[in-house]
């Protein structure tokens, strides 16, 4: 198993013996449309009254257009045709009808505005809830999920998928309802006006729907490919941003640009085709509607000449014909848009439905007080002492002082069932002992520390903490008792003090400075532009790697843990700086169990015990002098006869 690969979620997965790679998967269509729609409507319940008003407003808007057009019939038949050739016609009735028509259209405009404004509130409120639910649930997911899914894949759910969902809620749904109501209303009114012309219109609509299906089907397939290629481009860009230093170190700029050009070219091709089919639909249907309009006018004129229809009826009918094409096209377009958004919504719900980290532990960590006779009891005050509180079936709670005794008993583990990473590993670290793990890359050193934190659960065997099986300890409480300094330091956007306080949110400014001095970070911090108030951005890019690692050590120190795990914690610190912080680290280690993973063997010479791992098994153990005398693998590693890798 490649230790470093486990820490950096690569596009092809952690690699080595770690979990399998998580390629970005884009669903081409929703698997269960009804279920997804019902779930989205569930978020609407908070805004149900507003949504009801929106639907009513959309109905009013659609009806205003339909009724307004119908008024053309009485206006033409009763006020225009009779007044033809008259010198002084009475226009009072005509003006009244125009006022009525204007009032109806005004009601439609107001309804449109109100529905758009309320829908904006519904969409932003719904997406706010969904984002909160996504992010909140993401915090409960196990490390394995992040090891098997790329950053780009997860981020696409917060960006692309949420954006398509926003477009559907705020635009597609209202437009779909309006278009549907308009088409239904127009059909009814056209049937009332003339069933003869209605037959002709139905034939025209069938032709239009066939064209929409042919053109729209191609457009939808290319839009799906566009979404998939867009995710690939975004993921590649994100990966290159994170690895820009590596790209430059190995002069891979031409290769990176060539790879990106290929991805971008593929996106260009599918995006161009998608836009071509989408943009060509409206001109084709628009010109076709003019032909149908002319044909309908011709047939209608013949019916008027024969006395089968009056002029007002043909006027209203022709206007309905003009207003029918656009809603039908919009229905088709919004249907495809809604399906695409529902596919994105399913990806969002997949994340929300991802099983949370299982935690069946009952033992919790509490503030403790120890009496003169050695009895441990719980207290609400912060005493600096901690105890494990184990609820008993009889009702009384049992307390055991937190000391930091860590033991592995015949532990087996594999990220994949068929591939073991650790095999029958047994070891112990007593309180206050410094235990070092050495071995070649992939031997299983970092895996041991991951198991102690229960980032993964073991396959077989047992791990105990102060004699308690860690499966019985609540994960949050277990991790509160352990502090880690990783080789890959991550600093958050915020001040230096806030980044150190991340280890203990209750730490005072004095605690922060004390921890920084302990890690020998105080000197360089005070020489920053604003000292401890200096704002760090871009993962602390304005600091050296060594300074970033010193801050990580200070963050671990402020937590004041009984167990300290150092995973190559000093790998980016020069020998002089390492010597300067050795005393501070020794103070930090006093009374604590320390587990050290190091390739620089000079850092583990003073360990109480050095455990040599190879292929997931312990092959040697003992202190530095003993292992040198044995002249085994450690001797070979130390003298350079055998490379760590």
Strand segment tally: 16
Question: How big a fraction of the residues is strand?
Answer: 5-15%
Identify the CATH homologous superfamily of the largest domain: ABC transporter type 1, transmembrane domain
What proportion of the residues is helical, as a percent range?
A: 55-70%
How far from one another are the termini? 12 Å
Report the biggest beta sheet as strand number plus sense, adding barrel if it closes.
6 strands, mixed
What number is the mean pLDDT? 82
The domain count comes to 3
| Low-confidence runs | 1-28
Order of the strands making up the biggest sheet: 10-13-14-7-15-16
Structural class: alpha/beta
The CATH architecture of the largest domain can be named as: Up-down Bundle
> Which CATH first-tier class of the largest domain would you pick?
Mainly Alpha
Tally of contiguous helical segments: 20
Q: What global shape is seen?
A: elongated
Rg, nearest Å? 36 Å
Task: Describe the structure in brief.
The chain has 645 residues and is of the alpha/beta class. The chain folds into three domains: 323 residues, ABC transporter type 1, transmembrane domain (ABC transporter transmembrane region fold), CATH 1.20.1560; 38 residues, no CATH class; 234 residues, Rossmann fold, CATH 3.40.50.300.
Commentary on this structure:
- Residues 1-28 have low confidence and may be disordered.
- The chain has three domains: 31-353, ABC transporter type 1, transmembrane domain (ABC transporter transmembrane region fold, Up-down Bundle), CATH 1.20.1560; 364-401, no CATH class; 406-639, P-loop containing nucleotide triphosphate hydrolases (Rossmann fold).
- Helix 18 (575-589) links the parallel strand 13 (563-567) and strand 14.
- The protein has helices at residues 3-7, 33-44, 48-70, 72-80, 92-138, 143-147, 151-193, 195-242, 244-249, 253-305, 311-353, 445-452, 475-480, 496-501, 509-518, 522-526, 545-559, 575-589, 624-630, 633-639, and strands at residues 364-370, 376-378, 386-391, 397-401, 406-413, 422-429, 434-439, 460-465, 468-469, 482-485, 494-495, 535-536, 563-567, 593-597, 609-614, 617-622.
- The chain has a six-stranded mixed beta sheet with strand order 10-13-14-7-15-16, with helices on both faces.
- By secondary structure, the chain is an alpha/beta fold.
């Amino acid at each position: 198993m490649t230790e470093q690969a486990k820490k950096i979620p690569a596009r092809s997965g952690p690699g080595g013996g770690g979990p399998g790679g998580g390629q970005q998967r884009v669903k081409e269509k929703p698997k269960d449309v009804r279920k997804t729609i019902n779930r989205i409507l569930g978020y609407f319940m908070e805004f149900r009254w507003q949504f009801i008003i929106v639907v009513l407003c959309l109905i009013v808007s659609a009806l205003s257009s339909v009724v307004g057009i119908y008024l053309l019939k009485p206006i033409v038949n009763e006020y225009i045709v009779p007044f033809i050739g008259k010198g002084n016609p009475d226009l009072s009735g005509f003006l009244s009808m125009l006022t009525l028509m204007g009032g109806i259209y005004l009601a439609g405009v107001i309804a449109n505005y109100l529905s758009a404004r309320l829908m904006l509130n519904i969409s932003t409120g719904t997406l706010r809830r969904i984002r909160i639910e996504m992010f909140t649930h993401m915090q409960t997911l196990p490390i394995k999920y992040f090891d098997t899914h790329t950053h780009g894949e997860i981020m696409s759910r917060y960006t692309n998928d949420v954006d398509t969902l926003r477009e559907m809620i705020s635009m597609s749904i209202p437009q779909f309802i309006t278009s549907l109501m308009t088409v239904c209303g127009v059909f009814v009114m056209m049937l009332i006006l003339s069933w003869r012309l209605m037959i002709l219109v139905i034939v025209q609509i069938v032709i239009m729907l066939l064209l929409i299906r042919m053109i729209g089907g191609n457009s939808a397939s290319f839009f799906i490919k566009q979404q998939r290629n867009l995710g690939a481009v975004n993921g590649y860009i994100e990966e290159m941003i994170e690895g820009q230093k590596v790209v430059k170190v190995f002069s891979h700029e031409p290769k990176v640009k060539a790879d990106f050009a290929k991805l971008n070219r593929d996106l260009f091709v599918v995006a161009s085709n998608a836009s071509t089919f989408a943009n060509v639909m409206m001109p084709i249907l628009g010109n076709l509607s003019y032909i149908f309009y002319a044909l309908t006018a011709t047939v209608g004129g013949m019916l008027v000449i024969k006395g089968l229809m009056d002029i007002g009826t043909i006027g209203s009918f022709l206007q309905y014909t003009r207003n029918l094409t656009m809603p039908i096209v919009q229905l088709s377009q919004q249907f495809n848009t809604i399906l695409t958004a529902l596919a994105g919504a399913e990806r969002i719900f997949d994340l929300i439905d991802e099983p949370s980290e299982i935690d069946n532990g009952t033992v919790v960590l509490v503030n403790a007080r120890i009496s003169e006779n050695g009895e441990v009891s719980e207290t609400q005050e912060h005493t600096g002492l901690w105890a494990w509180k184990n609820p008993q079936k009889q009702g009384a709670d049992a307390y055991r002082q937190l000391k930091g005794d860590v033991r592995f008993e015949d532990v087996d583990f594999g990220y994949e069932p068929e591939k073991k990473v650790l095999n029958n590993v047994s070891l112990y670290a007593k309180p206050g002992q410094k235990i070092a793990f050495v071995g070649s890359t992939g031997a299983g050193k970092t895996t041991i520390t991951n198991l102690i934190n229960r980032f993964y659960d073991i396959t077989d065997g047992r791990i105990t903490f102060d004699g308690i099986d860690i499966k019985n300890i609540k994960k949050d409480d277990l991790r509160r008792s352990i502090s880690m300094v990783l080789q890959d330091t991550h600093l958050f956007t915020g001040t230096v003090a806030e980044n150190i306080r991340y280890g203990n949110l209750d730490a005072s400014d004095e605690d922060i400075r004390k921890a920084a001095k302990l890690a020998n970070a105080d000197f360089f911090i005070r020489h920053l532009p604003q000292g401890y108030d200096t704002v760090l951005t871009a993962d602390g890019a304005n600091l050296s790697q060594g300074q970033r690692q010193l801050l990580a050590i200070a963050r671990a120190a402020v937590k004041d843990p009984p167990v300290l795990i150092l995973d190559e914690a000093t790998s980016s610190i020069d020998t002089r700086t390492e010597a300067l912080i050795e005393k501070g680290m020794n103070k930090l280690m006093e009374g604590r169990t320390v587990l050290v993973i190091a390739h620089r063997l000079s850092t583990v010479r003073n360990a109480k015990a050095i455990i040599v791992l190879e292929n997931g098994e312990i092959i040697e153990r003992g202190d530095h002098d003993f292992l040198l005398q044995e002249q085994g693998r450690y001797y070979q590693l130390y003298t350079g006869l055998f490379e760590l890798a």
